[in-house]
Prior knowledge:
- The structure is a single chain.
- The chain is mostly helical.
- The chain is about 70% helix and about 5% strand.
- It has a three-stranded antiparallel beta sheet. A two-stranded antiparallel sheet has the order 2-3.
- Helix 10 crosses helix 18 (about 400-425) and helix 12 runs antiparallel to helix 17 (about 355-390).
Amino acid sequence: MLSAFARAFRTPDLRRKLLFTIAIMAIFRVGSFIPTPGVDYANVQQCIDSQGQNDLLGMVNLFSGGALLQLSIFALGIMPYITASIIVQLLRVVIPHFEALHKEGQSGTAKLTQYTRYLTIALAILQSTTVITTARSGFLFPNCPVEVIPNDSFMTSALMVITMTAGTGLIMWLGELISERGVGNGMSLLIFTSIAASFPTALWSIAGGANGAVNFTIMIAVIVLVIGLVVFVEQSQRRVPVQYAKRMVGRKMYGGSSTYIPIKINMSGVIPVIFASSLLAVPGLIAQFGDATAGWVQWVSKYLADPASPIHISIYVLLIVFFCFFYTAITFNPDEVADNMKKYGGFIPGIRAGRPTAEYLDYVITRITSAGAIYLALVALIPTLVLVLLGVSTNIPFGGSSILIVVGVGLETVKQIDSQLQQRHYEGFLR
């Protein structure tokens, strides 16, 4: 693999793309440390040392590469774009116009992308306002004795909202630049950069605590085990054979070929884990605004906000399984696939075209999604349970979602580099 990277850098076109991608990722990291106008940077650093964030803010801070707690110009990170993309995908189910645009091909996809951009800016305005309000009220840094935003005038707040929203727009543009002129998917690589940037600090915090050497060794072993499991499952697929009958179109004969439908075990990716984590963190966020002595606040803090609680773990697993089936049902429609196969003369050997094919595909998807849901739950729970058993803080970036994203993006980027090497008659990563 290292020799393949060396060959990639010796190829002028690939070298230019790789250097351009690395430069954009560096700009993204630099922007994460530039404070937003109106923020007292010294007070922010003091508060970060004494803060005790909740899981939801911790996850958003992870996806922003630590920029959220820094209150930088890139404080919102890529999260508004991710949320907007998921919303637009879900709206295809309830809005027929969106589904029609999706079927139009490239022009329809371009229109949906434009809607996603508009929604991203709207969400950025909403989220930046929420972050500023949370920081001013003291809930962003609950244990901090100093103010991070000394000036509470309307003009200062408006300037901060505009700056953070513009930062989100700039991140979106940088991601699209990587997709067009660099290597890999731009948005995915920016998320990869945000998560990977926090790994060294987290590893150092584990190694520096009590029983640091033992905890560090165990954590590294668990991470390697989970990465191996993720690579094995993400590369696995169920191939449903498809045969196309011969047919005459004019004077030409078409069809007669054999192919397959590749169905991944984990078709929903990391989306179920993100959804489950977000929903499960909301009660803890609401409880922070209540009276600490109230019964419901104490119950939420003990059973829902505590990652080691059996109730928290059970609900977390159930939410992952639910969203895994839900998102797979949205992204893969057996009836649509069966109709397209019938239209072009395709059929699954031993299965009649039409409704029987749709029922068979639905049966296969249900079985595979069941295995995928169990796999996602295991990947999401193993690192957290190990951290709880070791007595280490769970607010570090070794959860299932972060490892899934890092490994998944890494695999996809390596495949793209490998394919471009093979196009130039070089030997790829796989011998």
